[in-house]
Amino acid sequence: MKKLVGISAVTVLSSLFVMGCANTTPPITSGTGTSVMTQGDDFSKHLKVDNPKLAKKLKISEVKSRKINGLLEVNLQLASTFKKSLKLQYHFNWFDAQGFVVESRKTPWKPVELHGFQSTTLRGLAPNEQVASFNVYVREIPEKAYKY
């Protein structure tokens, strides 16, 4: 009998936990909607790094997006999994609904420095209303470029 009560309690608590973690659609107000990707989502599709060693040192831990006047605005958390500082540059690549690049090479490279295990928010605003998705391209600034 005690075993049955214990199993029932675990089942009820598990159900409450799952319902509490359910991803709900955020409200849309004044033409502005927001979207947050949760921890179970695959953020790696948004990070492009051509250097395999650098790619192992970086991860995206959260992505938020919303439409403002028809333009996609993105905030993402870029985190270092490395114990030393990283001097980086990044820029956003924007894609339409069919996956074609929108206004290629018009987004400037922006510098960012991540100290050991630090994370920072990168913000991007789409160049036009046709943008449906994005990725962020990150590269390391060569040491000789910033040493005198």
Question: Could you walk me through the main structural features you see in this protein, from its secondary elements to its overall organization?
Answer:
The longest helix has 19 residues, at 2-20. The chain is globular and about 40 Å long. It is of the alpha+beta class and 148 residues long. It has a single domain (28-146), classed as Immunoglobulin-like, CATH 2.60.40.3230. It has helices at residues 2-20, 52-55, 143-146; strands spanning 33-37, 47-48, 58-68, 71-80, 86-95, 110-114, 119-125, 133-140. The strands form two sheets. It has a four-stranded antiparallel beta sheet with strand order 1-3-4-7, with no helix packed on it. It has a four-stranded mixed beta sheet with strand order 2-8-5-6, with no helix packed on it. The protein is built from three helices and eight strands.
List the helices and strands and how they pair.
Layout (H helix, E strand, L loop, with lengths): L1 H19 L12 E5 L9 E2 L3 H4 L2 E11 L2 E10 L5 E10 L14 E5 L4 E7 L7 E8 L2 H4 L2
Parallel strand pairs: 2-8
Antiparallel strand pairs: 1-3, 3-4, 4-7, 5-6, 5-8
The appropriate CATH architecture is Sandwich
How many helices? The count is: 3
As for the CATH topology, it is Immunoglobulin-like
Rg estimate, integer Å: 20 Å
User: Helical content, roughly?
Assistant: 10-25%
Q: What is the global morphology?
A: globular
Counting structural domains, the number is 1
Structural class: alpha+beta
What are the secondary-structure elements, in order, as H or E?
HEEHEEEEEEH
Mean pLDDT: 79
Distance between the termini: 76 Å
Task: State the name of the first-level CATH class.
Answer: Mainly Beta
How many β-strands, per DSSP? Answer: 8
Strand content: 35-45%
Please list the strands of the largest sheet in the order they lie side by side: 1-3-4-7
Please summarize the sheet with the most strands: 4 strands, antiparallel
Low-pLDDT stretches are 8-40
Oligomer category: single chain
